[in-house]
Design brief:
disordered N terminus
């Protein structure tokens, strides 16, 4: 659950440069909410439980230690009752700007880094989401498994949550 020194060094290196294009899947969206509300939705466990996970899933926040080195762990229950776990460790937090974390979505995805970027544009937020994989092959596999549909559904739920919270 916690980063080894090797993994922490890997994430620190990633943080210092642009994500490698052949190992990164990216989603960009303009969210119709101020950055303060978007940030709250990403950092407050009560908000996270309201939108995290694809449509039809319920999310329980088991752990949410929102600080560099802090762990998070969410249990997601699918409509058929099966559950899977999402977890990671925060490696970078720039308030109202960026959140970087390791991430495992067992049993489907393991050992990736998620980078969430938030840029205020008046009453809207330019949101960029990168998921960085260890290899280009693993990145392609994750894309073929439905990365854009899955995360697209998650961010549709985020947009609905932001609208309801405004």
């Amino acid at each position: 659950m916690y980063l080894s020194i090797f993994n922490l060094k890997k994430f620190t290196t990633m943080r210092q440069s642009s994500p490698p294009a052949d190992r990164t899947l990216t989603i960009k969206k303009t969210l119709k909410a101020p950055v303060s509300l978007v940030w709250e939705a990403w950092t407050n466990p009560e908000h996270i439980a309201g939108w995290w996970g694809p449509a039809g899933m319920n999310t329980k926040v088991n752990t949410h230690d929102f600080q560099v080195g802090g762990a998070w762990n969410y249990a997601m229950t699918m409509p058929d009752g099966n559950e899977f776990t999402a977890e990671g460790v925060y490696s970078l937090i720039d308030e109202m700007s960026r959140i970087f974390t390791s991430a495992n979505f067992r049993p489907m995805t393991e050992g990736v880094e998620m980078q969430s970027h938030f840029e205020a544009k008046g009453e809207e937020t330019e949101f960029t989401f990168h998921v960085i994989h260890d290899t280009a092959e693993y990145c392609q596999q994750q894309e073929q498994m439905g990365f854009y549909n899955g995360w697209g559904s998650v961010f549709d739920r985020l947009e609905a949550h932001l609208t309801a919270s405004a």
